[in-house]
Amino acid sequence: MMHLKYFGSVLTLSSLLLLQGCEFNSDSSTQAEPEINVTILHINDHHSHIAGDDTIVLTIDGKASTATDVGNMARVKTAMDSLAAGKPNVLKLHAGDATVGTLYYTLFKGEADAKMMNTICFDAMAVGNHEFDETDTRLKSFIDVLHSDTSCKTPVLSANIKPKVGTPLAPTKVDDYIKPYTIKTIDGVKVAIVGLTIKGKTQNSSSPLATTVFEDELVAAQRTIDDLKAQNISRIIVLSHVGYPYDVELAKQLTDVDVIVGGDSHTLMGDFSAYKIVSNNNSYPSMHTNKNGQSVCVAQAWEYNKAIGELAVSFTEDGAIKACSGTPHIILSDKITRKDAAGKSYSIKDAELTTYLNSVTASNGKLMVAQPNATAKAILDGYKSQVDVLKNEQIGVASELLCHERIPGGGLSKTAGCTDATRARGSDIANVVSQAFLVQSLTSEIAIQNGGGVRIDVPAGSITIGTAYTLLPFANTLTELSMTGTEIKQVLEEAVESSIKTGGSTGSYPYAAGLRWSVDLTQPFGMRLSHLEYKAKGTTNWVALQDARTYKVVSNSFTAQGQDGYLTFKTVSNRGDALNTYLDYAQSFVDYVKKVGTLNKLPVEDYSTQVFINASGVRQ
Questions:
Q1: Which three-class secondary structure state does DSSP give residue 518?
Q2: How far is C-alpha 385 from the chain's CA centre?
Q3: Most exposed residue of 344, 437, 490, 549, measured as fewest CB within 10 angstroms of its CB?
C-alpha cells in the first residue's frame, strides 16, 4: 500500500495519468521544425472566488460527502506547482472572468485577484466580459496590479478588443494594456497564444466605454492567425472567453488553429460520474476538425477555482496536432463533512479521513487534495481579515432554501432540489430581490431585475452582509423610470429575446415585483409575453397592465442604461424619464432584509413568471 503525503502538496498518483494520445494526420505545408510537447495547465471564471468559500458535493467511498473550503486560490497555487513539477514545457493559462462575484471584489476591486494570480504567474490571461463590469478604467487598474509584479507581468490578451487611443486602456497606443497575442518559445520553437473575448455579452451585459470596439470573434481570430502564419508561426493556441459551444464552432471554422482553451460558459469537462459530480461534457478534451481538416482540441475547466485542466499536447514537425489528451483535476481540501444515521453533520477524521484520502489518490488525478501554499495564503489572509469583519454581520434569516435560476428550466443551480423547484417559474431569490427593490424604492410601482444580476442560491439560515454582497456583487444602483404599459411589455420582450438568442445571455431573463406574465418561446419576438398583470402596492388584486398608463418602474442602473438587452430602458433614460437614486442595490437588499427579518418564498401567485413554455412547446 502506498504511503500518503499531502502536507503542503497534493494527493495524486506519483505520476499523474495523462491519457494515451491519439495519432492524427497532418500536412507538411509549413517549414519543418522539431516536434515539441507542451503541457497546458488552465483555469477560467474564478470570479473573485479566491478564499475557499465554496463547497463541492460528491459521493466517495460510497458515501455522500461535502468538501468545504473549495476554491481557495492558495490551494490552486499548490496544485499548479505539483502538476508542473518535472514537466519542462508548461504553459499556465487563465481564460478570463477573474473578477466580480464575491466580497473580495466588492472591497478590493480586482486587487486581491491580481495579487493571488501573481503567486501562480500565468503565462497569459484572456479578457473576460466581467473584466469590463466597471468600465475600462477598472480593468486598467486590475492590469496595473497584475503587472506590478515585474517578475511575472502576465500578458492580458484579446485579439478582438480595440480601445480608442487616449482612453484608459490605450493611453498611447491601442495595445498598451491588451495585446492580441503573445509568443512563447518552447524548445526553440515559437508557440502563439491568441486571446479572444465574447463580443455581444461584453457590450450588452458589461460596461465598456462606448469608444472601445469589439470585433467579430471569428473575423478577429482568423486575421490574427493569418498574421502569425505570415511570421512562420504554425503552433497556435486560442485562449478564449466566448463559451464552450462557440469554441466548438470556432474550432470548425478557423484555419490553422490547434488548441482552444476556453472560458465563459463555466463548463466542467470529463467524466466524474463515479463521484456523482455532473459534468457538462464527459470528454476532456473534446476533439474537432478545423477548416484545414486538421485536429483541434478544445478544453475548459469549470469555475470558481474548483478545477484545473491539464492538457498534454504534442505538435508535429510541421506544427499540426500529433496528440492531445489530458485530465481535468477537481481541487479539494481535506475538510469533508458527512451526515450520520440521525442526519447530523460531522467532519470526518482519523481512519475515515485516511480512507477518503486513499480514494482521492486512487482517482488517477481526477480528484486532488491540496494544502494552501504558504506564501499565497499569507497574501490572502491579509485581505481575508478585512472581509471577515464585514461579511459576518447577520442581517436576517431565510426560513427555507431560496433557489436561483436565470431562466425557467435552465438547470443552473447545482443545489439539491433547486432544478425541480425552479423549473416552472424560475428563481425564488430573484423574485425576492425584485420585491426588495420595490419596497425600498418608495415611489415605484413595479420592479424589474435581470436574472444575471442575481448570483447564488440562498440557503436556509443566517443571512449576512456577505450573503447579500455575494448574491448581488455588482456596482449597481437603483434607477427609477417612468414608462407606459406598452413600453414595459416591449422591454420585457427585449429581455426575453436577449436571453435566448445566439450571442445573448440567459442572464437577461427578467424577474419582477408588482408584475406577472406568461411566456411562450414558440411565438415570435413581440408575441412571447401574454397575460401581463399589475398589482398595486398594498393591494391583493391583479389587474391587466394598461398600455397607455404610465407606471414608475425601478430597476438597476445597469439595465436602466439598456444593457443586457433592455433597449427600451435606454430609450426611456435618454428622453429624461429616468432618475438614478444612487442607492446601492446590494445595500438596498441589506436594508430590506433588516426590515423584514425573515425571508420566505413568495406566494406562487406573486412570481413574475406564471407560465413558461419552452422553445419546444413544453410547459415547464
A1: strand
A2: 25
A3: 344
Contact 571, 491 (CB under 8 A): no
Cβ(575)–Cβ(484) below 8 Å: no
d(CA 9, CA 78): 6
Q: Phi/psi at 168 (nearest 5 deg)? A: -55, -40
C-alpha cell at position 21: 494520445
| Contact (Cβ atoms closer than 8 angstroms) between residue 263 and residue 240 | yes
- The residues, any chain, with a CB within 8 Å of residue 464's CB and separated by 6 or more, are 391, 392, 393, 394, 395
- Give the C-alpha separation, 417 to 270, whole Å: 24
φ and ψ at 43, to 5 degrees? -135, 170
- Residues 170, 164: contact at Cβ < 8 Å? yes
Q: Out of 3.30.200.20, 3.40.630.40, 3.90.780.10, 2.40.50.140, select the CATH number for domain 392-613.
A: 3.90.780.10
Residues 6+ apart with CB under 8 A from 592: 435, 436, 437, 439, 440
| Cell numbers at 134, concatenated | 466597471
Contact at 8 Å (CB) between 455 and 412? no
In angstroms, how far is CA 283 from the centroid of its own chain?
Answer: 20
Q: How is residue 493 written as a grid cell?
A: 420582450
* Side chain identity at residue 537, one-letter code: K
Query: Domain coordinates of the chain in residue numbers?
Result: 33-383, 392-613
State the amino acid at position 340 in one-letter form: D
Torsion of CA 206, 208, 213, 214, to 10 degrees: -20
Closest by alpha carbon to 129, among 266, 259, 309, 325?
266
∠ Cα 123 15 321 (to 5°): 50
For 471, residues 6+ apart whose C-beta sits below 8 A from its C-beta are 429, 433, 454, 455, 456, 458, 586, 589
Q: Does domain 33-383 have CATH number 3.40.50.720?
A: no
End-to-end CA distance of the chain, in Å?
51
pLDDT at position 12: 41
Q: What stretches of 239-349 show up as alpha helix (H) in DSSP? A: 244-253
Using CA atoms, how far residue 549 sits from 272, 482, 604, in Å, is 54, 10, 26
Rg for the chain, CA atoms, rounded: 25
Under DSSP, is residue 287 helix (H, G, I), strand (E, B) or coil? strand
- Residue 473, preceding bond cis, omega within 30 degrees? no
| Residue 347 amino acid letter | S
Grid coordinates given for 454: 442575481
Global pTM reads 0.75
| Distance separating alpha carbons of residues 614 and 258, to the nearest angstrom | 37
Residue 567's SS3 state is: helix
Q: What are phi and psi of 535, to 5 degrees?
A: -125, 120
- Angle at CA of residue 97, ends 433 and 74, nearest 5°: 100
pLDDT at position 15:
37
pLDDT at position 391: 82
| Segments of the chain scoring below 70 in pLDDT | 1-31, 475, 582
